[in-house]
Automatic annotation (TrEMBL):
<protein>
    <submittedName>
        <fullName>Carboxypeptidase-like protein</fullName>
    </submittedName>
</protein>
<dbReference type="Pfam" id="PF13715">
    <property type="entry name" value="CarbopepD_reg_2"/>
</dbReference>
<dbReference type="InterPro" id="IPR008969">
    <property type="entry name" value="CarboxyPept-like_regulatory"/>
</dbReference>
<keyword id="KW-0378">Hydrolase</keyword>
<feature type="signal peptide">
    <location>
        <begin position="1"/>
        <end position="23"/>
    </location>
</feature>
<keyword id="KW-0121">Carboxypeptidase</keyword>
<dbReference type="GO" id="GO:0004180">
    <property type="term" value="F:carboxypeptidase activity"/>
</dbReference>
<keyword id="KW-0732">Signal</keyword>
<keyword id="KW-0645">Protease</keyword>
């Protein structure tokens, strides 16, 4: 009986407080979050500009437009929004602070940003014979020729291939090849290279190049020091 009386008093008190709570909520300021959406187009031809950056200044937030130039982002009242795209001038809009709705739409027209480069005039040789004469008589400095010769030397390329570490792309490709090889021979024994004629051909070529001799001599030289 006492519990029933307590529940009744609580419900009666809540009914009395509801009008006051409703009045307080109605007087409270509305949420300042605004859903900003719109489309970004060119000012001259009204074509959609995809991948346009939509940045909220000073907030470190933003988005980009889709293929049709449409965007949507949550912002606050009073925020400054900058639209930027390569080849167009930036444009900045400020969200009004006195908005009564929680949505705001924009049609952004970007103006082309034209950069004028200095004129380049291409003048060919008057005749083919003069071009061949100038091409043959072109003097290449000895140092650049020597650098080019060393870069194309087979021994140097093999040394660089053995010394330089693999980059990310090469490492991923090697890992994928190893994984594909395991899947290919899953459930069976992989072939042995001792019975592979291609492996024997590579071994003979390496022997003729002197790869094993160079390694042996380098190890002996390092031991002599």
């Amino acid at each position: 009986m006492k519990k029933t009386l307590q529940y009744f008093l609580l419900a009666f008190g809540a009914l009395l407080l509801m009008p006051k709570l409703h009045a307080q909520i109605s007087k409270a300021p509305k949420d300042s979050v605004i859903q900003l959406y719109g489309v970004v187009m060119t000012s001259d031809s009204l074509k959609a500009i995809p991948s346009t950056s939509v940045i909220v200044d000073g907030k470190g937030r933003g988005t980009i437009t889709n293929y049709d130039g449409i965007f949507s982002i949550a912002v606050l009242k009073g925020d400054r929004i900058t639209f930027s795209s390569i080849g167009y001038k930036d444009k900045t809009y400020e969200i009004p602070s006195n908005l009564t709705d929680n949505q705001y739409s924009l049609i952004v027209l970007l103006v082309s940003d034209t950069n004028y480069l200095p004129a380049a005039i291409l003048k060919p040789r008057p005749t083919r014979e003069q071009f061949e004469r100038d091409f043959v008589n072109t003097v290449i400095p000895d140092d650049q020729y020597e650098i080019a010769r060393q870069n194309t030397d087979e021994s140097k390329r093999r040394a660089l291939l053995a010394a330089l570490p693999a980059d990310g792309r090469e490492a991923v490709n090697y890992q994928l090849r190893q994984q594909a090889n395991r899947y290919y021979y899953q459930g069976q024994l992989p072939p042995q290279n001792i019975f592979n004629p291609l492996a024997w051909a590579d071994f003979i070529k390496a022997w003729k190049r002197g790869d094993f001799k160079s390694k042996k001599s380098s190890s002996s030289d390092s031991g002599s020091y």
